[in-house]
Amino acid sequence: MFIAGVTGNYGMGKSAVLSMFRELGAITIDADWVVGQLLKEKKVLSQIEKLLGAGVLDKKGKLDKKKVSEKIFNSKPLRIKLEDLLHPLVFERIDEFIKGYRDGKKIIIVEAPLIFERGYEGRFDKTITVFTNETTAINRLSMVGITPGMASERLKCQLPIKEKIKRADFSIDNSGFPEKTRAKVEAVYKQLLQETRVKELLSAGKVREIKKIIGRLFSIEGRVIKGAGRGGKLLHTPTANIALEKAVPLKEGVYAVRAAIFRSQAKDKLTPGTSHLKPKTYDGVANIGKNPTFGEMPVSYEVHLFDFSGNLRGKKLRVDFIKRIRDEKKFPNVKALETQIKKDIKKAKDILVHKI
């Protein structure tokens, strides 16, 4: 599945955009609807009453949303505690739905207002921010009975919309006529379909086919961090461990790669700062996986550069993936792994030199 998150600020039209994605064929989930279902459960209501105090439930045992709003929008600590209570439950229900979904459609879009405020962007393959200017949002809310004062108070509790636009992978301007918004939604959906196909190929390790879709080699970028040191000490093949901001759905295994080392140098005394030099490129072999020979570990991204000597720690690398060589597997001992690495290096060199 390819999962995208739609966010935005109060009154800016997330639900309208979600509906447009649904009409185009996406499976859509409204986190606010999920919250509504949770608020019908006695166990959840009991926890909320314990958190917010007596009086938030009416005589029928239902949540008095007006009283809840008064409490949480006048107390940030209470609002955060309520979010801490509800959000894990919401994502638990969403995860259950996604795991059980078997209809064959590939894109699921989740509308959730606090993706960036609460650091949930890592849950999604891509994020989309729906935006208008604040005046437009307040005017639209007033048409459904929300006073400007109430709207402003709620907007203050969210990240500035400019920040959300900056942090999202896509943005959709919902300030104008619905037809204009729909055209942008269609353009984003087309890109999401392409991203979905790329994710499928990555999951299968078919990196060569990705170039046909995106027009370039699939690559990762990150800074080199300190690793366990096994590459040089035990295996006599030093590797650079690359830290990524976000994991990629690439099938674990060994790949022939080309890596570019980004370089910079200090400017002269009269010109403060640094200048960027042309990256230096090396052929290499990369291993993506959990190093099972040494016990199950978190997924790491390691690359060995041919004909390179020196310290890469702290340097920024871009690694272009040329072709998959084999699956990652557990070897009976270090010597067997070292022997296989030598074979991998020879295979990678054949691929990179002869382009097989």
How large is the share of residues in beta strands? 15-25%
CATH architecture call of the largest domain: 3-Layer(aba) Sandwich
The biggest beta sheet is recorded as: 6 strands, antiparallel, barrel
Number of strands: 11
Shape: elongated
CATH class bucket of the largest domain: Alpha Beta
N-to-C order of helices and strands? EHEHHHHEEHHHEHHEHEEEEEH
CATH homology-level superfamily of the largest domain: P-loop containing nucleotide triphosphate hydrolases
Mean pLDDT: 89
Number of domains: 2
What is the count of DSSP helices, taking H or I runs of 4+ residues? 12
* C-alpha termini separation: 31 Å
CATH topology of the largest domain: the name is Rossmann fold
Determine the fraction of residues in helical runs and give it as a percent range. 40-55%
Give the class from helix and strand content and strand pairing.
alpha/beta
Description:
The chain is an alpha/beta fold and 356 residues long. It has two domains: 202 residues, Rossmann fold; 138 residues, Riboflavin kinase-like (Elongation Factor Tu (Ef-tu), domain 3), CATH 2.40.30.30. The protein contains twelve helices and eleven strands. Helix 1 crosses helix 9.
